[in-house]
Amino acid sequence: MSEYNALCSSTSSVDLNNLSPIQVFIRIKPSNSNDPYEIVPFEYSSNNTILTLPNSRPLSFDDVFPPQSTQYDIFESIIPLLHLPLYGYNSTIFAYGQTNSGKTYTMLGPDGKLCLADNLMGIIPRTSRYLFAAIHKLTSSSPSIQYQVRVSYLEVYNGHVYDLVRKNDNKSNNKPHSLSICADNQGNINVMDAVEIPVHNSLELENVLKLGNQRRATAFTYMNSSSSRSHALLIIWIERRERSTSSLSREYTSYLGRLNLIDLAGSEDISRSKAEGDRFREAININTELLQLRRVLDALSTSSSYIPYRDSTLTRLLQSSLSTTQSITILISHISSLNIDLSETLSTLKYSQIAKCVQRTSIPAQKLCKNIDTSDVMFGDYNDPVQCFYRRTVYIHTSSYGKIFARLAGYRYDEQQKCILLIHGSGPENSSMFWNDLVQRLLLATSSSSSLSPYYFVAIDCPGYGRSDGNKQTIRSYPGAFIQEIIDYISPTTHKVYCLIGSSQGAAAAFNALVENPAMSSFIAVQNPVSHDPQRFVCIKQPALLMYDTDDDGHPVSVGRLVKKYIPNNHYYEFASSKQPNWLEHNAHLKLLQLFNQYDASSNTKNVSSLQLTASSKIPLPSLPACVSVAGGIISYLSSFNREPLYQNSKKELESILSAYENQSVQNDDLFVEKIEPERIEDDESKAQRLATELAQTQCDLCNRHISSSDISKSLRLPDCRHLLCYSCCCETIKLNPYECPVVGCATKLNVPSSQLSLYYLPFSSNNENQVIIQFGNSCKSTSSSSQRYEYTAYVKCKTKNMIDSVSFDINPEYPKSAIRVSEAPYELVRIMNSEFTCDFIIQWNKAWNWPKLRITYYVQNKQGSFTRNLLVRVSNQGNKMVKSQKPCKEVVYNWADRDRTKPNINYIVLSYD
Start and end of every Kinesin motor domain (predicted)? Predict the structure, then answer.
């Protein structure tokens, strides 16, 4: 372990010039025999680099591990190679030898399975824990370094490559989903369509291994009770990003390293293994592929101009690993200590000697590139210059909405300080950073060198924004439930906050939350709010601070004046940004403090009995509740503040590397792809319990109504998510939108056959009205593999007889005359954007129909492929037309985000007269 500190700090400790392209280790499997005549009398040099067999010349290797060697001894020898991928190099470790020689034991553990026992753990689980320890130390040492780890798990079985973690693999059906191998323009060998799963700690990587190992081909033979019938390849991609030290630069350097951990199937004497049928065919394929591997080693050792990589699937897949210019490789050859296996032992040693003769032709190069980060919504954040403000960042782990990122400021102990919750708007780059200036001004105004501020601030990233998980529509669709859950976590005793502060859509969320639950806050303050149906705000009795910019057409002051009319206890301010461009920055915090002082005597900062500081006092931060974990540094989210204790380098602690901190490890994938969850496999006992529970269910999961025994046969159990829907909900919801489960928080893609859907009828069928089904949504595709830009195609279609005259696409609904009109089918709008965006669809009907325009409020979805919704439009039938003497209303609005979320029957709209 002495190499650990040096290798963590710099790769200069590893001289690549002095490393052989293929280092060869020999591991001898111990024997249970007590008969000395059955055991090969190996001899070893004092430094364990020379192995001698009877009647044979001495053989030199990089290391020889006698039968008494431990799993840790093997692992310690490979540690130098583990650090190379952390700096953009490729390295490979693979196990080679005859069947039943201990290869899988070395890589995973005993019995061909992943083992996590201290003394039996194999190379792969030890490597996983060691890598995350090294990553933690590197990111802790520098705030500009960031890592992401992704893994693929593949096998070569009967000459084909299969993905061990891809969903819906079906081994019993002869594995139909084999993958193709291709080379990129740098000569790197990759497997097309192989799943890459982001992992954040060793527990997640071990779960991927467990899933893959359950699917890997193994079988009983007379030589091995759990013989590997395939070659397994675990690929660990490690990307290191180093940001510019300049706070004004978005440039970063990216290093992409790759670690291959390979467990080869063993060569097999078919006369001894007695393989028949499928086992015979597997053995033939294994032996053939290993023969081709030996031919490649022969060619490499003689520096042949032609290397036969393409002669087998295995050698093609290992081409980058065996190349003298692309990777540093360790070959761990396994041999038996029994005389009966001597022939295979000699063959293994022969080709191990050949591999050791491979010479380096050039030094492997780091894979690095310069990039400009356009996706980081946190850009411009900074370290806190005022430490007594106690600013820091956390994740709030909610049960309903996932991880919510938040910025905390101020000191709070047992809810003594008054909590202020801040909610940002819905712009594409909005996050909790929006409130940095306001929070700092409030802290400066209410604290001093001798006393802490009486206020405690929590600024959240709403779901889908900044660094928070979830759907961006959450803050629009159910603000009350979401905000109350956040409050329950940050104020678990009182279940309320002192003040809600919101801007734009965040202000609308604050208003709506107080309408639903007036007790959640004592005050409310909003700036430039979006407001819907302000007459509902008459029930808001809290003192309210309202601030409007008369020059902001996106947040019209006319609506603000209505809000002022309906909220009884308001303090209303108007300003013109054209004349007073910094009015909010200079006045918002002062107006807020005036409001507090007017209604709450204890909020007067001159009289507050807050925590007093002295020159020698040091008040520690209270411990975080169980639902919260530290998410980064003081404001700057890449720094290592209050993170987990560093790994101490000792052999005894290796088995528990960072086990205490990995369950709460900092997520280092902020700039990367969405996490792919591995498929879960249900055992027979769990399946029986689930079916028994389902049979006893008599309540609809969507509308919560009781389903009678006579109607249960007409209900529908969704095949994937297993939710139960009554007949009425199937007619009103699934029939119209057969794309995803309508149950709140589920959204599982539906897999209901059209023949089954035909059993349910459209709702509201009547001769007294016309019914038109409108389909709308968008498709999305990346413009290039290296770009963060996407091509979005928003569209509207008429699924029944086309009654549409034109569709206007409005990507800026707050401004007049901003819509783009399309007069002929297909009604589509194509835009290349960095992120999702608002796009309202305004449908103008055929002039023969005197129908009002229909506006569908929509938010273009960033989902690869397409996102589709159906809407049933109901129009009263009066001679097939609306009577022209009766003037229809100008426009009817349908908010698609509300569909079957708060009400199951909301996926229809009625066009009517004023």
Answer: 21-358
How far apart CA 40 and CA 52 sit, in angstroms, is: 10
Q: What percent of the chain has pLDDT over 70?
A: 78
The structure tokens listed for 259 are 């670690």
Is 448 known as a binding-site position? no
pLDDT tens digits for 459-501?
999 998 888 878 888 898 889 999 999 998 888 888 999 999 9
Q: Is 597 annotated as a binding-site member?
A: no
Question: Is 861 known as a binding-site position?
Answer: no
790, 781 contact by CB (below 8 A)? yes
The answer to whether the annotation marks 100 as part of a ligand binding site is: yes
On whether 777 is known to bind a ligand per the annotation, the reply is no
Q: Render 815-845 in DSSP notation, one character per residue.
A: STT--EEE-SSSEEEEEEESS--B-EEEEEE
Is residue 247 annotated as involved in ligand binding? no
- For the chain, list the domains and their CATH numbers: 3-369 (3.40.850.10), 387-630 (3.40.50.1820), 680-744 (no CATH), 764-911 (2.60.40.1970)
- Binding site annotation covers 99? yes
In this structure, what are the phi and psi dihedrals at residue 473, rounded to the nearest 5 degrees? Answer: -75, -10
Q: Is the pLDDT of residue 809 over 90?
A: yes
Distance of alpha carbon 146 from alpha carbon 378, whole angstroms? 14
Q: Is the Cβ–Cβ distance between 588 and 438 less than 8 Å?
A: yes
Residue 463 contacts residue 505 (beta carbons within 8 Å): no
SS3 label, residue 355: helix
Using an 8 Å Cβ cutoff, are 469 and 401 in contact?
yes
Three-class SS of 417-462: CEEEEEECCCCCCCCHHHHHHHHHHHHHHHCCCCECCCEEEEEECC
pLDDT band at 731 (very low <50, low <70, confident <90, very high): confident
Amino acid at 741: C
Residues facing 545 on adjacent strands:
525, 571
Alpha-carbon distance of 127 to 107, in angstroms, equals: 10
Question: Which DSSP category does 127 fall into?
Answer: H
Encode 436-452: b = buried (16+ Cβ within 10 Å), e = exposed: bebbbbbbeebbeeebb
Give how far the C-alpha of residue 355 lies from the chain's centroid of Cα atoms, to the nearest Å. 40
- What proportions of the chain, in percent to the nearest 5, are helix, strand and coil? 30, 25, 45
Q: pTM of this prediction?
A: 0.53
Q: What are the phi and psi torsion angles at 298 (to 5°)?
A: -60, -50
pLDDT bucket at 304, cuts 50 / 70 / 90: confident
Strands (E), 733-768: none
Whether 615 has a pLDDT exceeding 50, the answer reads no
DSSP calls for 139-198: HHH-TTEEEEEEEEEEEEETTEEEESSSTT--GGGT----B-EEE-TT--EEETT---EE
Q: What does 519-530 look like in DSSP terms, one character per residue? A: GGEEEEEEES--
Any bridge partners for residue 524, and if so which?
500, 544
Please give the Cα distance from 129 to 236 (Å, whole number): 13
265 Cβ contact partners less than 8 Å away, ≥ 6 residues apart: 99, 227, 228, 229, 230, 231, 286, 290
Q: What is the pLDDT of residue 447?
A: 83
Question: Using CA atoms, how far apart are residues 504 and 515, in angstroms rounded to an integer?
Answer: 17
Residue 329, marked binder: no
- Rg of the chain over all Cα atoms, to the nearest angstrom: 33
